[in-house]
Design a protein that fits this description.
This protein has helices at 16-26, 88-102, 123-131, 136-145, 158-167, 190-201, 236-249, 323-328; strands at 2-6, 36-39, 52-57, 67-71, 74-77, 113-117, 149-152, 174-180, 227-233, 257-262, 270-272, 282-295, 301-307, 310-316, 335-343, 346-356, 361-364, 376-377, 383-384, 391-392, 395-398, 406-408. The chain is α+β, with helices and mostly antiparallel strands.
Length: 432
Amino acid sequence: MWIGVDDTDSSTEMCTTYIGIRIAATASDMIIGYPRLVRLNPNIPYKTRGNGAISFHLGEEGNKRIKIGHYAGKDIYSNGEEHPLPSSEEIKKTVISIVEELYVHGEPNTNPGIVFLKERPNPEFYLRCLREDVPIDDAKAAIDKIGGEYVQINIGRGIIGAAASIAWEPGLHTFELICYRGSIHVNLSRAEKLEAAKLCDAYVGTFNNMDMENNTPSIFPRERTPVLFGIRATNPEILLTIFNDLRIRFNQIPEDFLIYETNQGTDDHIRAGNGFRIDGAGIAVEGRIMGRPRRMRGGHLTGELASGNDTITFLVFEPSKKFRNVFENLNEGDKIRLLGSVSRGNVKVEKLEILSLSHIYRRIPPVCDVCHVKGTNRGSGNYLCSECGKILLPEYEKVTRNIKEGRFQPPVSARRHLSMPWEISGTMEEVK
């Protein structure tokens, strides 16, 4: 049985992953593999925060019993051996009661959805939910097609993400260990948070845990939610090691946690080609810089890219800080590759790859070879020797560029969940 849940939080309260640990605690030894945390289209206007949905696969037989979490004094394990499931009706009743208890009530933008399926929807549905604004009726149709069930609360928009998280067919994938504060009051100082985040990033295979550029511990969310922190890595086993290390160093850290398999850091939302014609799509597009990128009011930056017969306007926002400086050093003719998302026909840049740089030359006054006097500009592009009156042609020298070919990205704090950090590009393994 597959269970999916989405849209239970608000911009300031709760976290759908906390509902996940509550469900996981009731389903220990029935979960196949790891619970899923699946990020969907980051451009959806009515999302709460990270636009993430969760799902679980429950079964009677698994491959390996693995510790995947801890809650209320008990470890949570994946299913590693034959373990009879309770009746499906009992499972559904438990899940529905947990969601109804914990979702943010009275919030108009919170519209929970719960999905129960015996088989997964077509993976194309997941891709649509990454790159489009999918109607609720389309999600219901996808569920009905495979004989599934759904529960909608309010208008039930969460049905879309809940079904998509089950439809996800992991290729590249990462993991996140989320530690929950629960009812425990945790008061880590800023110095302790910085130390904790730096410790996480010291392990090989971790990513987006510490923003060194802005000295920000990115594992700690700003919102007042049940989440204390989340550690991201490409290997789930290293997450347990890090978590144990943190609990030894900081005795305030609670013991409740759950490890999710995620599509974070995979660039799954990006597609190549002319996707920039579709609002909300993630794209990768190559082209040559037109003119010079320039700062806008508010510190944002804009520029134009010639790609085939199209002219694309791109935007780099103020929170990306020094990332904007790279664009200011680009010049006419530089060949680049942009990765980002489309909004109102413009590309909101998430990453940049400089493929080749154009050569820039500047004109310098020539020196008369007879009089050895520097020529005077005649205003027509030529120069005149003031001593002998000889007309001199201008000379040119190549300008040293204050930029190099390579890959560039914003600081950790300004990155999207789905955007693959360059430092782990090519290091992740696909699910076989």
